[in-house]
Amino acid sequence: MIYAILKILSRLTIWGYFRKVKIVGRERIPKTGPYLFVANHPSAFMDPIVVASSIRPPVYFIAAGEYVGTGLKGWFFNKALHTIPVYRPSTRPEDAHKNKDMFVKCYEHLAKNGALLIFPEGVSLTEKKLKPLKTGTVRIAIGAEELHAFELGVPIIPIGLNYSDPHSFRSDLFVKIGHPIYVNELLETEKREDKDYQITKTREITELLQEKMQATILHLDSEEEEELLQKLETIFYRDVKAQLGVKYKDQLGEFKIQKDFIDAIKYFKKNDSELFVATEKKVDEYIDQLNMHNISDKDIGEFGNRFRFRRVGSYILGLPFFIFGFIHNILPYKLVGILTRNIKMEVTFAGSMSLAIGLFSFLLWYIGVSITMGKLFLGWWALLYPVIMYITGLYALLYSTAIQNSNQRKNLRGLAKTNRSELSNLMSQRSAIINVFMNWQKEYSEKVLNA
Description:
Layout: H1 2-17, E1 20-24, E2 35-39, H2 46-54, E3 59-64, H3 65-68, H4 71-80, E4 83-86, H5 99-111, E5 115-118, H6 136-147, E6 155-163, E7 172-177, E8 181-182, H7 183-186, H8 195-214, H9 223-244, H10 251-271, H11 273-293, H12 297-302, H13 309-342, H14 350-378, H15 385-418, H16 420-450
Parallel strand pairs: 1-7, 2-5, 2-6, 3-4, 3-5
Antiparallel strand pairs: 6-7, 6-8
Helix pairs in contact: 1-2, 1-14, 5-6, 6-8, 9-10, 9-11, 10-11, 10-16, 11-16, 13-14, 13-15, 15-16
């Protein structure tokens, strides 16, 4: 019951926290269990919340024992949040012997057609990169199959969590569910009970799982490549999407473009390092100038378009809804910001804590305001008040972003009047960078076709 309520609240919180949310591949999940879900782990506690909210079956989480704890906290994690603790030798060597019980619980849960969620990297780091996987996931799948004559049919289902930035409010989330792996289909019938054979196949299937998981995420080999990808997206991402007909909400299309970006970046970093470094320098100089003038690349790219009176009309018509949403949400919004800034935590926990604090802060605020309005004015109609506050709160965020973008466009118009040569220089730099990278993509594509 607690899990079901938290799942609903988590979904609402996720849709409020992220600007865009897209989940693809749900049709690849079998209609009945058992299930063994695996996901990359860039954002600590946020990741299990996102996965559990994205799929239909209720999941049991395999989580580090040091976070589960004992007493009331342990009860809540075990019973309400469906957590099975695992004790890592690197952090809790004295409790590592308890992992035998963890395996037994996993086998029992899968035998009941239940769902497990594992983060096989074994560590949470905010990187666009899949770290080497531990073998525990495949060992659990093979162990469960062995107890049931290899007829259980446990699918290992990869889930890729792609955040534009998990620690930034109103960033983007793209979840890609991959094709399942059935370990019982990869084991030779006459050898599958041989322990040495199982060990060998465990490593091989883990390597296969690594490949399957990498296909569901944006995987870069270094921070340098990740930074360049982010900067290139800032400069001409919109242009490429427009050329390919990829709409604003088409996150699968965006994902494919980003994959192409990554392949081209890796190719030219390896094959033309001088051009790669020179392009990096040009990108940095261009972005520094944008920041100095407080203007966006989007507006540079669209400069010269006619002034849109429809946009002004939407600001005027939307103002009452913005004011209502602002008034009814500003206090919990500010509270979440204050608490998040003042709680000391590791970087990978920042987004998780913000999400959790936001969930409970807004929930308590909405309940309190609704009760007050019900007693004073609305009676039972106050039950609709949380819905109205939530919707207008989201609208207030969109409205605020639109106003901020409008101010940047105003700065650009000012630059065009006072320093036209500087604007022309920025537009030339942008065109040069786009041409370089478009040539990268063309050359890389020809290489792939001719391979």
